Amino acid sequence: YQRRVHGVYFFSNTMVKHRGSKPGKSTSRRKVRKAHFTAPSHHRRIMMAARLSKDLRAKYSVKSMPVRKDDDVRVKRGTHKGREGKVLTCYRKKWVIHIDKITREKANGATVQIGINASNVEITKLKIDKDRKALLKRKCRAPRANKKDKDKEKDKGKVTQSDVAMQDVD
Q1: C-alpha closest to that of 132 among 41, 67, 50, 47
Q2: Three-class SS of residue 29?
Q3: Residue 80 predicted with pLDDT over 90
Q4: Contact predicate 26/16, CB 8 Å
Q5: What number of other Cβ atoms are within 10 A of residue 28's Cβ?
Q6: How far is CA 140 from CA 27, 53, 159, in A?
């Protein structure tokens, strides 16, 4: 059963906008929230991404990366704004990361890590391994030139012997 009202298609169970969203993807607030909070760990990794600092963005031509243990980060929002440290853990179940030196003392004297949302930090130094290197290569937004195109650009404007010989053919 399908009905169209004001550019929106109503199906039996889901509501899909006519323009601006993919068919089959729900725009229902309830369903989107359920999908978010019941997301599996490998999806949470991607959702727990953070922006790269300006110098890293210029170096790798990548805007953001999933946060991982041993990355150096700077807190950009919240009560701990401006503080820097190394990521100790990515607590995907709670959607937070723990950063060294950002702790608080409990009433009984024990110190505990404070959870920081990954979207509130900026990565200042990446821990690079082979998988991270491959991801950076895939995500790179710089235009990729083929080897043939590079060779053509290198020889662009040069007059070769064959070009000179062809001029005398007339």
Answers
A1: 67
A2: helix
A3: yes
A4: yes
A5: 13
A6: 30, 15, 35
pLDDT digits (tens, 9 = 90+) for 119-134: 999 999 999 999 999 9
CA distance 31 to 28: 5
Measured from the Cβ of residue 63, the count of other Cβ atoms closer than 10 Å reads 12
Q: Residue 73: exposed, middle, or buried by beta-carbon count in 10 A (0-12, 13-18, 19+)?
A: buried
Structure tokens at 149: 């195109």
pLDDT in tens, 84-106: 999 999 999 999 999 999 999 99
> Encoding tokens for residue 129?
């391994």
Q: How many CB atoms lie within 10 A of CB 131?
A: 9
Pairwise CA distance, residues 162 & 44, whole Å: 60
Q: What is the mean pLDDT of residues 141-158?
A: 65
Helix, strand and coil percent figures for the chain, each rounded to 5: 30, 30, 40
For residue 86 the two structure tokens come to: 């190394």
Answer whether 103's CB lies under 8 Å from 93's CB. no
b/e per residue 93-128 (b: at least 16 CB within 10 A) = eebbbbbeebeeeeeeeeeebeebebebbbbbbbee
108 φ, ψ (degrees, to nearest 5):
-85, 5
